[in-house]
């Protein structure tokens, strides 16, 4: 039994990671902005699984808060053996006409924070000669659909490069690239999913179980479900012009969602 630190642990995939790790007898460090929600979750995990759950409230778009989490990763007290960089957000806007401040927050959260926390964790883990880093990417990183695709493409390539650098140290790096997954993510980002194909949806429980199994095996690129493995292979082989066409389809869906009246209008 070891300690795992999960960012974005209060909802979505992060919540599922927290539960599966706790039931597998890992102590957990829960990181998110909502301290009250984290405290309730910690109590539930401790009561249900008999593990120690630590609450670390932090806004991961704030560099001072990110440094507090990084210090926890460097600590030798209850050392963290698994980092799950899960926190993320969806921007329901176009880049050109959108809010640049929102773009900055997304970039900070899904790129710089992943880099900073991976750096802190890797340094401590290499010193101990054991550990694992799991970064949550997305199949969206293979297409051309807004800055979210760019962020997740960065996460994938960064994790692969990190895995190369860590080879032989006893520490591994894995990036999981799920497709559409049933969580609070789309609702919190006010993203209309009505036009998304039903066959494309995955369950959070299955995504997390597959990701953790791949971490245990030292897999670098983890893609849950056969259909997304096939889709990812096609996207890697397809001409980039075709990939951009698919991105245009996603843009059309966003246009329709943004033009639709608000539910209470």
TrEMBL record:
Lineage top rank: taxon: Bacteria
- Keyword Nucleotide-binding listed: no
Keyword set, alphabetical order:
Oxidoreductase
InterPro entries per UniProt: NAD(P)-bd_dom_sf (IPR036291), SDR_fam (IPR002347)
Q: Which stretches are annotated as coiled coil?
A: none
Report the family membership.
Belongs to the short-chain dehydrogenases/reductases (SDR) family.
* Name of protein: SDR family NAD(P)-dependent oxidoreductase
Q: Which organism is it from?
A: Cellulomonas avistercoris
